[in-house]
Write a structure and sequence with these properties.
Layout: E1 2-4, E2 11-14, H1 18-40, H2 49-75, E3 81-83, E4 87-90, E5 98-101, E6 105-113, E7 116-123, H3 126-130, H4 135-146, E8 152-155, H5 163-174, E9 178-179
Parallel strand pairs: 6-9
Antiparallel strand pairs: 1-2, 2-3, 3-4, 4-5, 6-7, 7-8
Length: about 180
Amino acid sequence: MSTQPGTKSDRLVIYPSKAKLVLMLLGCLMFVAMSVWIGSSPRFAGFSRWKIFVSACLGVPSFGAVGVFAALRLVRPKAALELDDIGITDNASAVGAGHLRWAEIDHLVLYRFLGQPLLGIVPVNLSQITLRKGLVCKAVGRMNLSLGLPPFNIPQNVLPIKLSDLCSMIEQRYGVQVVSPDA
C-alpha cells in the first residue's frame, strides 16, 4: 500500500499481497492436478464416467484461469486498487470493475458470501456502466445480481489490508456510504 502525491489529496495505491498470490497459485495448481487425476482415473464409487469427465473438464480451465491470473500478478505486479479524489480503480480480480468515478457509485456493501469477505460496489446507474465493460464482466455482474449480490465485488483474499479498514478509509476520505447487511 502506498500513497502518491498528486492532486490536493494523496492517491492511495494498494498492491496485492504476494504471499496470498503464491498461496492462490499453489492451490490452483493442486486443484488442476486433482482435476486431471480425477478425469483420468477409473470410475469413482457412485459417480458415472460422464459426470467425472465433466467435472474434470470444468475444473482444469476454471482453476487454471485463476492460476494464470495469480502467476501474471506475481510476474508483473499491478495495483489491485487505486483510490483518489476522482474515483476507484478496481483490478483486484480478473473481472474487476475497472475505473468508477465516486459520482457513479451509490454505495458500497461490506458482506460475506460463502465465508469470503467481499466489498460490493453498487452503482447509481448500472446500465450506463455496463456499456463500458467487456462481455465477461457483464456476465459476472448479471450473475451476481441474480444471486442478490452487488454487481461488482472486491475480494479480501488478495488484499494486504482488511476490507473493514478499507471501508473506513473510503468513508472518511471520499464520503462514500458503506452499508453492512449485518448491521
